[in-house]
């Protein structure tokens, strides 16, 4: 898994990864790794040392169904309550700082996706 993809998975799965690391007694070591990840530096080796890389990769493989990278059809996506028409321009939520490749499609009823790595909402665009 390349750095940008790994950082996207880390962004999405960090809360659960923190729980696993805490249970294993590696919570402080994971937290020490996060500043490098926030800078966009490679953290693959450190996550492997902590026994978290394989777990993160398996979660990512299950979370991305085939064809998930395809653009939605049509020019608009229905989102009730977003504006008076309930529609927004086509786009995705992306990393607020451009550190990773995480991209989330807006879905009706979903909360605004948040980057756990930067503790900031994803930007739409």
TrEMBL record:
Protein name: Uncharacterized protein
UniProt-annotated stretches for the region Disordered: 64-90
């Amino acid at each position: 898994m390349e750095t940008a993809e790994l950082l996207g998975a880390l962004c999405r799965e960090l809360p659960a990864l923190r729980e696993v690391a805490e249970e294993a007694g590696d919570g402080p070591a994971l937290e020490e790794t996060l500043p490098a990840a926030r800078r966009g530096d490679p953290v693959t080796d450190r996550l492997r040392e902590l026994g978290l890389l394989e777990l993160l990769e398996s979660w990512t493989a299950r979370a991305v169904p085939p064809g998930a990278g395809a653009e939605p059809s049509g020019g608009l996506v229905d989102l009730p309550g977003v504006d008076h028409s309930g529609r927004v321009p086509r786009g995705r939520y992306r990393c607020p700082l451009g550190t990773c490749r995480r991209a989330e499609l807006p879905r009706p009823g979903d909360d605004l996706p948040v980057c756990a790595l930067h503790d900031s909402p994803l930007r739409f665009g």
